[in-house]
Amino acid sequence: MAPPFSRRDFLLAGACALSVPRLWARPHFLDYPFSLGVASGAPRPDGVVLWTRLAPDPLNGGGLPPAAIELRWEVARDEGFRDIVRRGLVVAEASEAHSVHVEVAGLDPARWYWYRFMAADAVSPLGRTRTAPATGSMPARLRLAFASCQHYEQGYYAAHRHLAAEDLDLVLFLGDYIYESSWGRNLVRRHEAAEPATLAQYRNRYARYKSDADLQRSHAAFPWIVTWDDHEVDNDYANDRSEDLDPDFLARRAAAYQAYWEHMPLRRTARPDGPRMQLYGRHDFGGLVQFHVLDGRQYRDHQVCEKHGRGGANLVDDAICSGRRDAGRSLLGAAQEAWLDRGLAASTARWNVVAQQTLMAQLDRRIGNGQQFWTDGWDGYPAARERLLGALAAHRTANPLVIGGDVHYACVADLRRDFDDPKSSVVATEFCGTSITSQGPPQARLDAQRAENPHLRFAHSEKRGYTLLELSVERCLAQLRVIDSEKAADAGISTLAAFVVHDGRPGAETA
Ligand SMILES: [Fe+2]
Questions:
Q1: How far is the C-alpha of 193 from the C-alpha of 182, rounded, in Å?
Q2: Is 150 helix (H, G, I), strand (E, B) or coil?
Q3: Which of 101, 119, 419, 435 is deepest in the core (most CB within 10 A)?
Q4: How far is CA 82 from CA 48, 86, 115, 222, 351, in A?
Q5: 84 to each of 43, 75, 499, how far by Cα in Å?
Q6: Element (DSSP H or E) covering residue 203
Q7: Burial code of 359-389, b = ≥16 C-beta within 10 A, e = fewer?
Q8: pLDDT band at 21 (very low <50, low <70, confident <90, very high)
Q9: pLDDT single digits (tens) 219-249
Q10: Is residue 14 predicted with pLDDT exceeding 90?
Q11: Is residue 219 helix, strand or coil?
Q12: Distances (CA, A) of 83 to 8, 15, 75, 88, 468
C-alpha cells in the first residue's frame, strides 16, 4: 500500500526553514483523525485550555508523518456554533504526538461554551466547557465530581458515562488515569501491549484508554483539573526511584511525563522539561472554593523500610520501622510544601479543597495490639502529614476538605491532629473516592480496620464510581455515586451514601 503522504505533500511554511515548523500543507487522513476525542481543562474566569490530538491510527503511534499539521479551532456560545466568540489556528507538532493545547482567553466568567477543532475536512466531536466564576464573586454553588483509578482491563467506563450526564461545573481527576501493568481478576478487555517504558509505548497506552467512548464523553462534557499518581509512570515510584530500582528510571519518567502532557488539557506551564513537570497548582472558583492540587509523586522522599533489594512500598511494623517517623521526610518536597503552606495561609476562600492522590488519614492495618502501616501513602510520611494538618490549624484555613483516590474504596474520615487520640481536634474532613474500575480490597478487612481506626467514619470497597461534591456558603454535600457493575458497559448508577460538612464545623455527618 502506498503511504498516505509523500515528500511532495510537505512544504516549508515561511522563508526560514530553521525557525518554522515543516507543515504538511494539505493533509489527507486515511481514517478519522479525532479518534481520541476532545477535552478542556484548567478553567479560569476568562478562559480554559482546549485539547485534542490528531491520531488516525491511535494504537500504532498515531499514523501521521513526522510533520506539523495546522488545525482550526472555534469556541461558541451555542451548541450550533451560530455565535462563535473565539477562533484561531494552532499547529500540532509531531514532537508532541500531534496534540494541541489551546489556551483560550477573553471569555466571560461562569458560563458554558462549546468548542471544536477542524483539520483538512475532518471536524472533531463537540466539546462543552465552562469558565470559572469571576474573581471576587460569591457563586451560590459549585458542583463537581472527582474520580481516580480507571484500570482499563478491570472494567468498562460506565461510571464515566453517568458522570458525563451529571449536572456539574467541573471534574477533578486524582490519578491512575492509565495503568502501566496488567493485574486483577475477571478482566473484561485487554491492554494488548506489554508494560510501557518508551515514549512511543506510553503514547499508545494513553491512546488505548482515550479511545474509550465513555471516557471521551466525560471529557467532552466538563472542564477537568488533573493530577497524577504512580501508575501514570510505574507502580509505587518515588521521585527518581522505581520499584525495581531501574538505573534508567528518570528516562522512563521523562517519557511517561511527556505522554501525560500530550494527552491532558494542561496549560503550557505544565509542559515537561525532561523528567521534570510542574503539575501542582491552585484553581479558584470565585470566593467560594480554592483548590490546592498536589503532586505527591515527583518530589517525595523514597519510601522507608523497603523490602530487601527493592524500592516501592512495604507494610511495616511501627515498632520496627522507626525511620518512618523522621521529621525531615517529605511527601511533597520542600518547595511544594512551602508553596502549599503559603497558599493555605493566604486563602480567603470559603472552602479550601486539597486535591491529592491518596488517603491522608492514618490507617493502622494491624488488627489487635501494635500498629502496622503501608509506606507508600501518607502513612509513610507522618511528619509531613502533621506539618500539613498543623498548617491548616495554625492558619485557620477556612473549611478544609481533603479529597483523594488510590485506595480503590470509598472512605470518609476525620483528619485529627493526633490520630491515636480520639479526643484530638478534627482539623479537616476527608473524602477519598472509590475507583472508576480498579479492584478494591475485601470489605471484611476494611470493616476490621475501621474498628481499629475510629476516625474512619465510612469505608466501602465493593462498588466502583465517583464522588459528587456540591459546595455552597453553608455546607458541602458529598454523594458517593456507584455503578451496579464495572463488568457491564450499560450498568446503572445509584447513590451509595451521602455526607454533609457544615461551614465552620470540620467532620462529616450523614446527610
Ligand atoms: Fe489506583
A1: 10
A2: coil
A3: 435
A4: 20, 12, 12, 21, 38
A5: 19, 6, 41
A6: helix 199-210
A7: bbbbbbbeeeeebbbbbbbbbbbbebbbbbb
A8: low
A9: 999 999 999 999 999 999 999 999 999 999 9
A10: no
A11: helix
A12: 38, 36, 9, 15, 32
Is there a contact between 204 and 196 (Cβ–Cβ < 8 Å)?
Answer: yes
Interatomic CA distance for residues 452 and 24, integer angstroms: 63
Q: Which three cell numbers stand for residue 473?
A: 456558603
Query: Ligand 1 center to residue 149 CA distance, Å?
Result: 4
Length of the chain: 511
341's grid cell: 503552606
* pLDDT above 60 (res 142): yes
Tell how far the Cα of 465 is from the centroid of ligand 1, in angstroms.
13
Q: Which amino acid is at 312?
A: G
**CA of residue 37 to ligand 1 center, whole Å:** 24
Which strand (E) or helix (H) includes residue 166?
none
Q: Say which amino acid occupies 431.
A: F
pLDDT digits (tens, 9 = 90+) for 332-362: 999 999 999 999 999 999 999 999 999 999 9
Cα 90 to averaged position of ligand 1 atoms, centre (Å):
34
Instruction: Give the Cα separation of 173 and 186 in Å (integer).
Output: 25
pLDDT in tens, 32-59: 999 999 999 999 999 999 999 999 999 9
Q: Output the pTM of the full model.
A: 0.96
CA of 407 to the centre of ligand 1 (A): 6
Q: CA-CA distance, 11 to 408, in Å (whole number)? A: 50
Q: Ligand 1 centre from 403 Cα, in Å?
A: 14
Rounded CA separation 493/163 (Å): 9
